[in-house]
Structure to design on (133 residues):
């Protein structure tokens, strides 16, 4: 993704942020601007205003094929309700219902693990420290 492609992207502020001066941990927002050279990403939270984050503080949805592939590899290792939720989140991504898919990830740690990744990792800025699959 390049900067212009990031505009409008639905993100989840990482639920395990150690420092959260904007008090937006585990909240859904939308990228309104990004300066990747300085690792500054501005996220809008609607009526709750905007906040500035680094790319490693934000989680984005993975591509549907990646979600599906990882879930199918581990299907027998997880409870069926979690597998079902992951596949439902995948379907929501395919239908461009990103906010709903992110909401599912907020509520189910398995969906979060399989369906989302850190923005810096997805952009190729940090390929070694991905928190998920």
């Amino acid at each position: 993704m390049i900067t212009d492609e990031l505009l409008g992207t639905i993100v989840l502020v990482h639920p395990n942020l150690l420092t959260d001066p904007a008090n937006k941990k585990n909240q859904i927002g939308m990228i309104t601007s990004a300066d990747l050279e300085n690792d500054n990403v501005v996220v809008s939270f609607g009526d709750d205003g905007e906040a500035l984050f680094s790319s490693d503080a934000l989680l984005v949805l993975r591509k549907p094929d990646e979600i599906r592939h990882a879930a199918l590899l581990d299907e027998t290792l997880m409870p069926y309700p979690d597998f079902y939720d992951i596949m439902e989140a995948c379907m929501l991504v395919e239908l461009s219902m990103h906010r709903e898919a992110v909401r599912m990830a907020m509520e189910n740690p398995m969906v979060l693990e399989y369906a989302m990744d850190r923005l810096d990792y997805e952009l190729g800025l940090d390929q070694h420290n991905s928190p998920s699959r």
User: Anything to note?
Assistant: The CA atoms of residues 3 and 128 lie 22 Å apart. The chain has six helices and six strands.
